[in-house]
Protein 1
Amino acid sequence: MSDGNGLFVFDEEQEIDSSTIVRKIKVLTVEDDLNYQHALTNSLIEIKLEDNCEIEVLTANSVSQAALVLSFHPDIALTFIDVVMEDDDSGIRLVSTIREVIGNADMRIVLLTGQPGFAPEQQIMKSLDIDEYWNKSDVSAEKLQSIVTSNLRTWKYITQISSARKGLQLVLDASRSINSKHDMRSFSKAVLVEISNILNVTEGGGIMCSTQSDGELVRAHISSANGCFDGFEGKLVDNNILLPEIYTDFKRALDEKRHVFSEHHTVFYFCNREITVESYITIVQSDNKISEQNEYLLKVFSENVSTGFSNIALLNKLTELAYTDVSLNMHNRNWLTREIKNMNLHEQYQTRLLVFEVKQFEEKAFTFGHDFCQKLLKEVYKNLIAIFDGYSARIAIINNSSFGLLINANFDMTDEMIASLIRQKCIITSVKQYADLRILDLALSSVLNIVPEKIISIAESSLSDSHSTSLTYIKHTQEKTDALTSRYSLMARLRRVIGAGSLQVALQPKMDLVKLTPVGFEALARWQLDDGSFVSPEVFIELAETAGLISELDSVVFDKVLLTIDKLSDIGVNLPVAFNASAFDLVDPDYCQKILHKLKDANISPEMLELEITETQAISNYDLIRESLDKFMALGIKVSIDDFGTGYSSISHITEIPANTLKIDRCFINDIESNANNQYILEMIVNLAKRFNFSIIVEGIETREQCEWVKTIGCNVAQGYYFSKPLFFDDLIEWLKQYGKV
Ligand code: C2E
Ligand code: MG
Ligand code: MG
């Protein structure tokens, strides 16, 4: 290896002390005058160079001979060329060949002439890429010494710069090549190839290995290998694989946590403890001696490799995190999704997804706390692993209370097995507990055209759809998939329709039964599909609630309600319009404020509005909703409790509900003339309502008889098809004409 101070860097053949190595610098003379050439050669040999360098003189006596020598010795440093040889311009042609045809720009060229007038110096120096031009008679031995030393020094710098440029280009290309690899295997393979390129290794080779051990017993697995190490992948590094001196340096690199460079091998040590406990070691054995310059290049390259290792280790860690439930230390939903994604059609046909849901998990979490539930899940996981041991099952936790398990489609779920699955014994902090589970069994062949992300959702929905049944082992069917997918697709369409604000609003009149005149309207959302048909609000309101879209939907409807009030007022109809709010809206502490802002912006008075909330929803989150309803009433917006009588606690809460009106559900009206029970309930509600100062409105009046009956018990306001179905604006205007309102 070079001692670091050498002027010239050459490959070396002999293994001797670097201070005694003589480096040959090639100098060529091209001269047809053999006497002159002889003298020149002798003088050149005499010249003493610094740093153990010595001139090796090569000769040629014609242009063609020179071309031959040049092709054998591309590393000639300096050439003396006689201008006039076979022809008057032979020397000049040779210069052009060297520079333009051979493309050697580094070699120094000195032109010599015996007939100075023949080729004037100024003209030659200007037109040719040469370094000096001398009259032969002026070149004394001393002159020659200075010509040679100055040109060789220049050549040295030029070649150093040019080889550094080439080397750095190599490193740049190598870095580019390894940076395009994103997994450890192809990255480490690329690193080995690129190091071999930089070192120009022909008969050596390299290995890449990783280890977590720092101590005496090093267990490093080879992840990739090339050249003379081909075929060692997967093996452990030991001194049978590596030469003893390389093995020693391998251990040294690990002990001292650094790269180790040697004459015929290098050991790179890469580690980033912040990201991984793994250390990566790259060992390259080179048949060529590793020069100082190459060592430098490798150091530069190793910086890129080190960054690359960190990036890939980071990527691996992120990937691992993305597929792991960190607190439970088990695979998560993403992982299971990926497992399904990686299956081909045949494998899907061959696989079943089982979902295990821990029953009453929320209640358990509420009663026993988070820690207990985590332990419970770990126990269930352990049980599942044990029960399915030997059946190549893949298990993951897919939501906070369920596990997903992939297993062969032909797997036989025996009754005993189901029994052991649905009631599992768990020991939690030394106390025996039971975890009750529900199982959904879904053949992946029943969800073939569905993206893997949705397959798990379908399984979950299928399981929750059957919550009302007491079944604990539920088989999913193709029909269920069809029903669920059409529901999902409707949900997606609803999301778009709400986003575009293109839901419509229909108005249903509320009638004063005594005066037989409209006293207000209820705004009801309408969703018309492209084919002209309407989706029932019973369907899409529930969908919006499930998809978390209900507040957005209500907001779209509310904006249209304000526009409608404005349009009605323009034609002289100043009657209040009721809008339906959901519990999701009312639990938002800012909801009332948002409504108020909109009212102010539209310049509409609060008396023109009424809020309807179903009794069931009003009771659902009673404290929060009561606060919200109070605010509305304080603002002068009337509140009606919709579908009154269908909720359980209606009567008991009647004194506390902040509302102006009770809107009696149409289920009491259907058969009011004949159903004594309903007559009794209705009368009781009306009496109570009067006692507590509520107004009453009855919904669902379809016949004159129903209308008469409710009037007799003192209900004076009603809504129903008997008067009008919900109408779009233009139809409403027509309808209003009969009452002389427009
Ligand atoms: P609701 O607020 O109790 O509305 C009354 C429902 O009864 C309306 O059904 C109306 O068309 C229907 N109806 C009225 N008179 C009669 C009648 O004489 N006979 C019969 N059989 N039905 C009658 P619709 O429009 O299908 O709405 C259903 C429910 O959807 C509404 O019940 C309401 O709870 C909800 N909803 C509608 N629009 C909205 C909205 O914008 N936001 C929210 N959150 N819910 C809405
Ligand atoms: Mg309503
Ligand atoms: Mg109602």
Note: The first strand starts at residue 23 and ends at 30.
Protein 2
Amino acid sequence: MKAVIFDVDGTLVDSERDGHRVASNLAFEEFGLPYRWDVGPYGALLETTGGQQRLHRYLEGEGMGQAERDELVPRLHGRKTELFRDLVTAGKVGPRPGVEALLDDIERAGIRLAVATTGSRAWVEPLLQRLFGLDRFSPILTGDEVAVRKPDPGVYLQALDELGLNAGDVLVVEDSANGLVAARAAGLACVVVVNDYTAEHPLDGAALVVDTFEGLELAALEHALSTADIRHFPMFDGLAPPY
Ligand code: XBP
Ligand code: MG
């Protein structure tokens, strides 16, 4: 194993319930909009990756027309991103328990670290800098760099290309079905560390599924990579995984 590519939201950080969801509600309130995303229903909204795409899908479901959404969503999402960054700065978004120790073990073994997220670079960089140190990860690829977000494999194909490694030497660590499908479609083995929002996701094809980073040893990642059957991973078929 020569590199591990980490997803961000839900993986390196437990950032959805008390982060992106809260920032979205604060933005709705500032814009005088009646919408609020409660903890439970937000899980279903996460099926759509990308905050802007998620807002479009939700507001369309609330009956808002395309033209109004095209005008509103970039402004609303921009403010939400600032509010999320403020939550990060205020220490409201932390690393998932156990992930820092694993990052240290991976680096001590001379294995490279990279990031591939659907989230926006505007908050990804300050978050990585504050919680982990930015320089540890290369490349850092975000939703801004790809034409299509997960479950499309684009971000993982680009990360693999920039790493300059063979797929068989690289492991992905994700939290969700969308992330797993993206990694598999890029021909990469993928370990899934589920969280409260993703514990019931369909995760067949994962090289390993655990529910915490605590006690997850580097040896377990290396074993998962060596035993993963990446020959039969289906290419991305354009459809989101069944939920
Ligand atoms: C999760 C996402 C992101 C975040 C919100 O990304 O789908 O869209 O929910 O961030 P990942 P933005 O799990 O791939 O890290 O609003 O900036 O998109
Ligand atoms: Mg994720």
Note: The pocket of xylulose-1,5-bisphosphate (ligand 1) is lined by residues 7-10, 20, 49-51, 81, 117-120, 143, 150, 179 (CB under 6 Å).
